[in-house]
Amino acid sequence: MIPSHLENPILITNRVNQRWLHHLPMVQGAIYLSKQKRIFFSWGRFAPENLPNGLEVKTIAAEELGCQVAKLLRESHVKKLILEGDVPYYVYHALEERGVRSLVIRDGVIEHFRETKDEWEIAQLAEASRITDLAFSKILGDLKPGLTELEVAAKLEYYMRLEGCEEFNKTIVASGVNSAKPHHWPTNKPLEKGDFVTMDYGCTVNGYHSDLTRTVVLGRAGEKQKAIYETVLQAQQTATRALKAGKISNEMDKIARDVIDGTEFRGSFLHNLGHGIGLDIHEGTGLVQGSEAVLKQGMVVSIEPGIYLPGFGGVRIEDIAVVEQDGCRVLEHSDHALIEL
Ligand SMILES: [Mn+2]
Q1: What predicted TM-score, i.e. pTM, was given to this entire model?
Q2: Is the terminal CB of the chain with fewer CB neighbours within 10 Å at N or C?
């Protein structure tokens, strides 16, 4: 929550930041916050009467925003306004014309407050994770040679849709040699016996994202496949056990990377260990090489090490977890052990 003793009024135009404040999807408008007033200026046809966080609702035409805000500032004898997000030029111009002189664009102001999640937000993330887990348990019954990556992706989305999610993440299904590419979009390639099949997907509930990755083997896993899988799993579990408030972002990445780099697969973990997650799929503090950011209680991050061997295949295992004082709470509960189908 934004502290009520804001130094200067702020006009919030970023849609995701607005959603964070009013808990409502797709409402067109802007939010004005100051010491005295908390107003949601709505110019959509749908103007809710009551909003959380003490927001008063005023329906106006979008073109009036600059004029309305200037009036509020004049009434409270304030000349300085903080802007964030994408402010349309006509708003900026209307404010300037009315003597609002010190306009400061400060992106990241609201994002900073969004980093640590409250209980309601964690409940939304947990519900999205539950739906995602359910789709995983269902897809296991469908995976067989001949099914294409696109069909697997469509089925995952179908199962999540039936459970009542709002939207999907960009679903990744990567099989066989395609699994060596961390961001492979699904194709018409049919699954084949012996393939690694990596599924990285998720959905939103009240705007909050889940994010899950599991890799399975179609048929019996070979020795090299088992070795890769066990290494990624060990990296993922070691990092999960280490995660707690006070840890440094890059230390967390190193914990997982050291596990992988201590094996024959050294150098094949091609991305960072994790990202913050919430109303945006990638937001806030992650588990990132070179980042000195400190993890705080209530932050939610993904933990997703992988090994990628071009021409052979790859494995990634991902959960999202809430950072707590003495550890972390993993929100997804799909099995971690190697699944051979
Ligand atoms: Mn992720």
Answers
A1: 0.94
A2: N
